[in-house]
Design goal:
This protein has 239 residues and is mainly β. The chain folds into two domains: 22-165, SH3 type barrels (Roll); 167-229, Ribosomal protein L2, domain 3, CATH 4.10.950.10. 7% of the residues lie in helices and 22% in strands. It contains two helices and twelve strands; from the N terminus they run H-E-E-E-E-E-E-E-E-E-E-H-E-E. Strands 5-10-6-7-8-9 form a six-stranded antiparallel beta sheet, with no helix packed on it. Strands 3-2-1-4 form a four-stranded antiparallel beta sheet, with no helix packed on it. Strand 2 and strand 3 form a beta hairpin. The longest helix has 10 residues, at 173-182.
Length: 239
């Protein structure tokens, strides 16, 4: 018998799990610029957005556009940043990866040129360029994983502000609950084996350890197709 799982309810997009985007500051992204015409931006304000873990900069560009961007550590209202290919290597400036030296801290890296930035955007995060080739740039991400980017992808010099956010403990479960509620995140997360049998296929049997395998066949019906879907290998690898 199929069961209505929490994951399925969230995917439906109902009001209970809909993100309160009307409270968010807006989309934090780069603006486009021409290769031979670098532009400057003035930091008009530093904003708080409940949808972002880091403070946001309100920027007014020299071409008349306005936008938001994750604030780098150490910036203040009134500072100016530059956007271009050959601008100075300074905190807050935006350059293509091909023009950034190896070992410099960067954040808000574009996945594809012109998408506005997708990687390394949370508070206190930064990445470093490891290797450069003619066709690719190897970047070490905060997770210590290395990823290849195109040389034309842009990034910001520095590290994201708000690095001390995780140093203050929540102390109580209620504080964590209200913090997650601000972003409409479902918390706490309960494992399927801890639920009742009517709530999850792994629940029930009056104990935490049920002995039911977490593998599910590829042709399992909805409600049972949970856990590892048709895994090729499970358990310890025996040589």
């Amino acid at each position: 018998m199929g069961k209505s799982l929490i994951q399925q309810k969230r995917g439906k997009g109902g009001p209970r799990y809909r993100a309160p985007s009307f409270r968010y500051g807006g989309r934090a992204a780069f603006v486009s610029f021409k290769k031979d015409q670098p532009i400057t931006a003035n930091v008009a304000d530093i904003l708080h957005s409940s949808g972002h873990s880091a403070p946001l900069l309100e920027l007014k560009y020299s071409n008349g556009e306005t936008g938001l961007l994750q604030a780098p550590e150490g910036i203040k209202v009134g500072d100016k940043i530059e956007v271009g290919e050959n601008v100075e290597i300074k905190t807050g400036n935006i350059l293509p990866l091909k023009n950034i030296p190896e070992g410099i801290s960067i954040f808000n890296i574009e996945s594809n040129p012109g998408d506005g930035g997708k990687f390394v955007r949370t508070s206190g995060a930064f990445a470093r360029i490891i290797t450069k080739t003619d066709n690719s740039i190897i970047v070490e991400l905060p997770s210590s994983k290395r990823r290849m980017f195109l040389p034309e992808c842009k990034a910001v010099i520095g590290m994201v502000a708000g690095s001390g956010r995780t140093e203050k403990p929540f102390l109580k479960a209620g504080n964590k609950f209200y913090a997650m509620t601000a972003k409409n995140k479902l918390w706490p997360k309960v494992s399927g084996t801890s639920m009742n049998s009517l709530s999850h296929p792994f629940g029930g049997r009056s104990s935490h350890a049920k002995g039911i395998p977490t593998q599910s066949a590829r042709n399992s019906p909805p409600g049972r197709k949970v856990g590892k879907i048709a895994p090729k290998r499970t358990g310890r690898h025996k040589r």
